[in-house]
Sequence to fold (228 residues):
Amino acid sequence: DAKTTQPPSMDCAEGRAANLPCNHSTISGNEYVYWYRQIHSQGPQYIIHGLKNNETNEMASLIITEDRKSSTLILPHATLRDTAVYYCIVIKTSYDKVIFGPGTSLSVIP
Amino acid sequence: GAVVSQHPSRVICKSGTSVKIECRSLDFQATTMFWYRQFPKQSLMLMATSNEGSKATYEQGVEKDKFLINHASLTLSTLTVTSAHPEDSSFYICSARRASGGAINEQFFGPGTRLTVL
Fold:
């Protein structure tokens, strides 16, 4: 399975867009990019996933580069409640195990 | 929809006792459930994969005799920490995978159980 690389931490001002990068340079053609987040002392929460097209839902947008070697999760208007650890994970099929890396700790600052 | 619950949310036990944690998928059937462990300031570590009606598959380094997993129905998996010791104190999280029939990996996580062994 492809591995991912994320910055360990980021800050974002409240109300501004939070852009969280992820590198997955060894991703193969049939692997999806998934994003989860974990608020302190809670279980992980699914955010969004994509294969090669950009995706948007009520929580976030996912921008995947044309070569699929990296992606960016965008929280358009970050709030204090978005403070969490964000995990970028590459998954091949519906039967893959979800393996978490260290993720990015996002702090939204008032 | 797609809610996963865990019980209890917190448990404190004495060293040497056994503790059972339940994971339930409330509104869907899950042929596969997963158990994770998370130590403070660390990421989630996958412990085992639990398939309904069959033996669990443990990740390398996880003692199967210490962490007993039972997946007796399509909505319930249990993790029993046997002869718990202080080093077993951790945040235990389960997840349940909903069969989607396609390529999408629909895995939903429980809220976690905080185990403290005195």
Observations:
- Chain B touches chain A at residues 4, 6, 32, 34, 36, 43-46, 49, 91, 93, 95, 97, 99-112, 114 (CB under 8 Å).
- The radius of gyration of chain B is 14 Å.
- Chain B has no helices and eleven strands.
